[in-house]
Amino acid sequence: MKRATTVLITFVLLFMCVHGFAQIKLPGIIRDSMILQRDAKINVWGWALAGEKISIKFNAKTYKTITGNNGKWLLQLASQKAGGPYTMEIAGKNKIVLQDILIGDVWVCVGQSNMEHQMKLHAVRYADEIAHADYANIRQFKVPNVTNLLNVQDDVNGGSWKWADSSNVKDFSAVAYFFAKALYEKYHVPVGIINASWGGIPIEAMMSEDGLKDFPAILQTVEKNKDTAYVNGVNRKAAADMQSMPKPNDKGIAEKWYDASYVPKEWRTIAIPGYWEDQGVKDLDGAVWYRKEIDVPASVTHVPAKVLLGRIVDADELYINGIKIGSTGYMYPQRRYAVPANVLKTGKNLFVIHVTNNFGKGGFVPDKPYQLITGNDTVDLTGYWQYKVGYVNTPRRGSGGSFGIALQNQPTALYNSMIAPLINYNIKGFTWYQGESNTGKPGEYAMLQPAMIKDWHSKWKDTALAFLFVQLPGFMDYTYQPTESGWAMFREAQAKSLALANTGMAVTIDVGEWNDIHPDRKKEVGDRLALAAFKIAYKENMVYSGPIYQSKEINGNKIILSFTNTGTGLATSNGEALGEFAIAGDDKKFVWANAVIEGDRIIVSSDDVPNPKYVRYAWADDPPNANLINKEGWPASPFRTDSF
Fold first, then answer.
1. Neighbours of 622 (CB within 10 A)
2. Is the pLDDT of residue 9 over 90?
3. Which of 16-25, 108-117, 400-409: highest mean pLDDT?
4. How far apart are alpha carbons 90 and 56 in whole angstroms?
5. Would the pLDDT of 399 be above 60?
6. Strand-strand pairing, 191-197 and 95-111
7. pLDDT class of 244 with cuts at 50, 70, 90
8. How many Å apart are CA 441 and CA 204, to the nearest integer?
9. pLDDT band at 396 (very low <50, low <70, confident <90, very high)
């Protein structure tokens, strides 16, 4: 009897297993509300039982195939014109009906945080755009952030297509949304965004093993990471080291410095904004508390308000009248905290900000908004506050502990899980905004980015796919003397990918912020990528970018520069003389030059350099007066002649 029961249970389990595999399964990206690529044969694929008959009914046609021995199937549907909505019926032993399908143009939008940044993170600048978003024909599929160090995946780990209404658009990539909106407003066809971005990642994470074949040192890391025992061991040790570190005793927490009843003693004066290391507090990593009584008018009380605290390095907590209003755990987001209606009172209100910083300068980033806002009323929060140190990190002796392996930063880790599963999906092209994590190795990047472009073209089996990328904007301190610059070299490395066919570059040197690696002006970036798409992908006869350095001619004490993309002529963005041109002789000691526009060329000279050899333009991390444009209004890409 016992043996018969066991046999019966085994039979039931086998039946359930076979029955489960017999069900048609679709990849996560093929689902309701998807946008399919127009004017190209359309791939639809999935899994079912080996030898199972599969049929698809779409737009009055039926397509049939039989599943292979590996359980996989793929059908190629006839090319379609833009339109919809359509219904798709997929049948085997079960039936799946997909609704609200559109035909249009599909773009894979990839990068790190500046591509990932959602509209909601820029809600102050783009409040009107968010409020009035109503584009059923613009849709985003956000690829879930998942890593895989071992092998390529067949499918993404979830996700759904969302259309750009005032609610959903808050979670759209801001750059990708403005890119898609510009395309839609020009061509009036549906635009699909496949958003495969992840903040802070290097380019290698989005590259395949094939794409890295010419980079043996990186491939060694790939192989090492396939040893799960090694990876897990490193991360376990790092976690153990972290646990063994002494926990800080924050006096501010213990003594409730945020509480309205707390009586401050021995607090000092400090300014907001500003870093404490720049205000007499030397090399302090730890926690610093700020407090100030803010006078609030009656009109601001009893209604919801918001507090803007610019950016803070690294983490912060805001308390008002002893009530915790909000917190942020890392340095990059802009601080925008909602204040409930019952918190503020007429007259003096106690504001306390708890700031923690573990490395580098800590405090409040200058040149950002620090305000209390309600309705039309604004209270300025800048000025002198009181501060006191909650704790100071104690430097560890010896090795200082180990660091773990950040899985998302490992080569191939995101290609395997976020790019490879998309390869069957027909697309128009790619947009790419990445590089901040690779700026330390511009020479390597100059080879990595072209290798990735070629590999993605190979994987999609279509070298005509447009690859449009963003050249990094200005960032960090302004410099007013000619200087060497890692970010300038990196922009040069990016530009070298223009040598490949069907590539386009959006120059953004003018839309950066010296104090923010995530500049707020995302619309200009999306719009310029769209201009590149008009030219590269849609073959419009137009000038899509600003001047690009082409060649030089030395004539006595002058160097004559020629450019492509001059459009209807060269000009300056501010109507003033050309800035940011430097010149040097054989010694490469650059000095500021006199630069004059003559037709489509620029004549550069200096009385201090009688025998010039080289010219540089906007060669700095963040050049303050990069004003060369064409008359269409697009900025010139920074360049140097001494690299050619």
1. 21
2. no
3. 108-117
4. 5
5. no
6. parallel
7. confident
8. 12
9. low
**Structural contact between residues 578 and 627, judged by C-beta atoms closer than 8 angstroms:** yes
CA atoms within 13 A on the CB side of 586: 1
Tell me the C-alpha distance between 315 and 324, whole Å. 14
Where exactly are the structural domains of the chain? 251-392, 548-640
Distance (Å, whole) CA 447 – CA 203? 11
| Matching residue, tokens 């069900």 | 23
Instruction: Verify cis geometry, omega within 30 degrees of 0, for the bond prior to 85.
Output: yes
Pairing between strand 95-111 and 35-37?
parallel
Token digits of residue 89: 């019926």
Name the CATH superfamily, with its identifier, for domain 251-392: Galactose-binding domain-like (2.60.120.260)
Residue 602 and residue 594: Cα distance in Å, rounded? 10
Q: How many CB atoms lie within 10 A of CB 248?
A: 15
SS3 state at 576: coil
Strand ranges across the sheet with 305-309? 336-339, 305-309, 370-374, 377-380
Give the angle subtended at the CA of 195 by the CAs of 194 and 196, to the nearest 5°: 110
Q: Phi, psi at residue 541, to the nearest 5°?
A: -85, 90
Q: What is the DSSP letter of 191?
A: E
Question: Residue 11: is its pLDDT beyond 70?
Answer: no
**What is the structure's pLDDT at 644?**
52
Cα 86 to Cα 283: distance, rounded to the nearest angstrom? 62
Average pLDDT, the chain: 94
Residue 19 confidence (pLDDT) above 50: no
Q: What's the rounded Cα separation, in Å, for the pair 241 and 396?
A: 11
Alpha helix (H) residue ranges in 461-590: 486-495, 522-536
Dihedral-angle region of residue 150 (phi above 0 means left; psi in -120 to 50 means alpha; beta otherwise): alpha
Q: Where are the alpha helices (DSSP H) in 201-309?
A: 216-225, 228-244, 251-254
Tell me, what's the pLDDT at 16?
41
Q: What is the 3-state secondary structure (H, E, C) of 289-325?
A: EEEEEEEECHHHCCCCEEEEECCEECEEEEEECCEEE
Distances (CA, A) of 305 to 80, 376, 500, 529, 623: 51, 11, 51, 36, 37
pLDDT for position 17: 43
Q: DSSP assignment of 121-168, as one string?
A: GGTTTTHHHHHT-EEEEEEEEE------SSS--SS-S---EEEEETTG
Summarised one tens digit per residue, pLDDT across range 431-463 is 999 999 999 999 999 999 999 999 999 999 999
